[in-house]
């Protein structure tokens, strides 16, 4: 009887030991598999993230190239009319502004050049006149919230573009306009004598990169 009880105890102990070992093995296996699955999932997420970033970077480069094309188109259309110069003053939106001309043609509230540039290259285009203290939009197809053209408005004097232009330097970068980011290009406009008389401007809407 004692031997029988001892045998049962040994069997039970063995079963318990096997059960514990099996449980431990199962837990270890589950942890290993879970870790591998997480690693694979993380790797897949990283791969997809890098792929998306790569696509956005390509779009970003393409957009910047389009802005450059827009700028070259704007300048070509302007200079096809004639050399830029300031010829006295005139009024726009109730303000006295320098009379920016291409050749003999005033560009103040004349939209042929900027609209042709937009038609050919997309984006928007603006010509600024420099009065010695401000860059004033004298012709543009940038629209205000009421649907009218933003003529007579000035370039933000606290912005990087203003600082660059007033020092006769170009500026290109992302500028937030009414809550929408744009890739922009500003180039100082010089007359035949090399004097600063205004600025050329083009842009395109920017698709943000998730970096």
Structure characterization notes:
The protein is α+β, with helices and mostly antiparallel strands. It has one domain (53-205): Beta-Lactamase (2-Layer Sandwich). The chain contains three helices and eight strands; from the N terminus they run H-E-E-E-H-E-E-H-E-E-E. It has helices spanning 2-81, 112-121, 160-166, and strands at 84-92, 95-102, 105-106, 124-130, 135-140, 171-177, 180-190, 196-205. The strands form two sheets. The chain has a five-stranded antiparallel beta sheet with strand order 5-4-8-7-6, with helices on both faces. The radius of gyration is 34 Å and the shape is elongated. It starts with a helix and ends in a 6-residue tail after the last strand.
Q: Could you tell me the radius of gyration in angstroms? A: 34 Å
Largest sheet: 5 strands, antiparallel
Mean pLDDT: 81
- What sequence of helices (H) and strands (E) makes up the elements? HEEEHEEHEEE
Q: At the third CATH level, what is the topology name?
A: Beta-Lactamase
Q: Strand pairing plus helix content: what structural class?
A: alpha+beta
Strand order within the widest sheet?
5-4-8-7-6
Q: Quick one: overall form?
A: elongated
Residue windows where pLDDT falls under 50 for at least 5 positions: 15-20
Oligomer: single chain
Annotation, overall tally of beta strands: 8
Percent of residues in helices = 40-55%
State the separation between the terminal residues, measured CA to CA.
77 Å
Overall number of domains: 1
What is the second-level CATH architecture?
2-Layer Sandwich
